[in-house]
Amino acid sequence: MNGPKQDGVTYYQLTQRNVFRSSSAKAYFGSARQRKNLAKRLNSNVTRIIVENHKAKGVVLIDGSKLFARHEVILSSGTIGTPRLLLLSGIGPADHLKSLGINVVFDQPQVGENLQDHLDLYCICEVSGPFTYDRFAKLHLSAMAFIQFLFTRKGPVASSLFETGGFWYVDPDARSPDIQFHLGLGTGIEKGVKYMPQGGVTLNSCYLRPRSRGTVRLQSKDPVDAPLIDPNYLEDKRDREMSIRGLKLTQAILSQKPLQPFIRSEQLPGPNVKSEEEYFDFICEHSKTSHHCVGTCRMGSDDNAVLDIRLRFRGIRGLRIVDNSIMPRVISSNTNAAAIMIGEKASDMIREDYGL
CA–CA separation, 55 vs 315, rounded Å? Predict the structure, then answer.
């Protein structure tokens, strides 16, 4: 899955260790938590970055206390959280900040722009027997699965649920696969699934190179309020066409002869969805995020880029951003490994910049 050629289907590689999910916190922070030069503050929400004379000095916490940086502030709050904190700090589009009564510290129109994500579409079929993980929704089977995991670290509890998938083409002229699939041996997280006695199976697809761009904005200057997230999915007509092609391909896969003994009927989109307009309406009602958001503080060498190529904020000294918001474009796959890569590369650059 992470090799030079993605064409085809296989088991997904996972960030797991000894069956359990291995988050970046466990993999990196766990081994460093005892270092003398590391101080931790948990449950301490940051509400503002302190900027004086175009230099980031530190941060303000929600209780009003302040933390000051010796060299620089490294912001790593994610594609949504990072532009949100910058906007709360008065760093972003001046008109938007003024409309909320926020003092403009630095006018950067591109903060919160260029939001990209993979839109997840799904085809769900009812199965003809107890072939998927849906059967473990029954209490006694759930208990048995838990006991199995407790003693063997195997079975459905050890599953990632979406264990297999692959990459293929909806545009025959694409330079590499432009559609991704995730096969889920069950249902439950998708909207609009009716009860199926034997359970179901889900095949998700997402178009990997969307042209549509969204935004992250504030609804108020109150740091407690959630941000306004507009992914602007399918605004570009090509995104609609490619996404519908991908959804039709999932239907074709699940209708193949080798699967017929296991599948009773297609439930979503279903046989009544036929025209392009009906497919588009279905997508508007049933699609969801792939959790691959990127791009809201993109790096680059052009004047409009928020960051330079070493992830330093252009126009504010002592401020660096290290998360998926720095991507100029969403990659043609999942973004977790890319986020880890960004963190590792940034750490190398920081050490180089300070001669460490």
Answer: 9
Residue 122 β-bridge partners: 204
Angle at 268 between CA 266 and CA 272, to 5 degrees: 80
pLDDT in tens, 100-156: 999 999 999 999 999 999 999 999 999 999 999 999 989 999 999 999 999 999 999
Rounded to a whole number, what is the largest CA-CA distance in the chain? 70
Q: Residue 245 is encoded by which pair of tokens?
A: 């092609």
| Distance separating alpha carbons of residues 164 and 175, to the nearest angstrom | 23
Rounded Cα distance, 306 and 295, in Å: 10
pLDDT tens digits for range 288-323: 999 999 999 999 999 999 999 999 999 999 999 999
- The two beta strands, 228-230 and 215-217, are antiparallel
Q: Distance between CA atoms of 64 and 327, rounded to whole angstroms?
A: 32
Tell me which residues are annotated as active site: 292
